[in-house]
Amino acid sequence: MKIDMAFVEELSGYRVGAPPRPTGGLSVDGAAIDAGVCAESKCENCGHQGMEYHPFIRDNSHSYRAFAVCPECGEAFEF
Ligand SMILES: [Zn+2]
Fold first, then answer.
1. Would you put residue 22 in left (φ > 0), alpha (ψ -120 to 50) or beta?
2. Cα 77 to chain center, whole Å?
């Protein structure tokens, strides 16, 4: 999947951003974990090691979507 106009269209209503950090001692910071997973991931398209973390959130539904984007070939993978 490439980041192009169709991709942006699909994400309309979302904005760039990670979900707010949870409060409370036992909560897991999912965004930090996802960012770490991205950094250690390999691009399935070109094999580049180290994906960029691109989180999007939609405020009204508290929807969260995260993408790993390859800085080398631009391929994006939702996870
Ligand atoms: Zn790639």
1. beta
2. 8
What single letter denotes the amino acid at residue 49?
Q
The alpha carbon of 17 and the centre of ligand 1 are apart by a number of angstroms equal to 22
Q: What local confidence, expressed as pLDDT, does residue 27 receive?
A: 67
Contact predicate 18/57, CB 8 Å:
yes
Q: How far is the CA of 73 from the centre of ligand 1 (A)?
A: 4
- pTM (2 decimals)? 0.71
CA-to-CA distance for 26 and 10, rounded, in angstroms?
34
- Residue 11 CA to ligand 1 center (angstroms) comes to 21
pLDDT(3) > 70: no
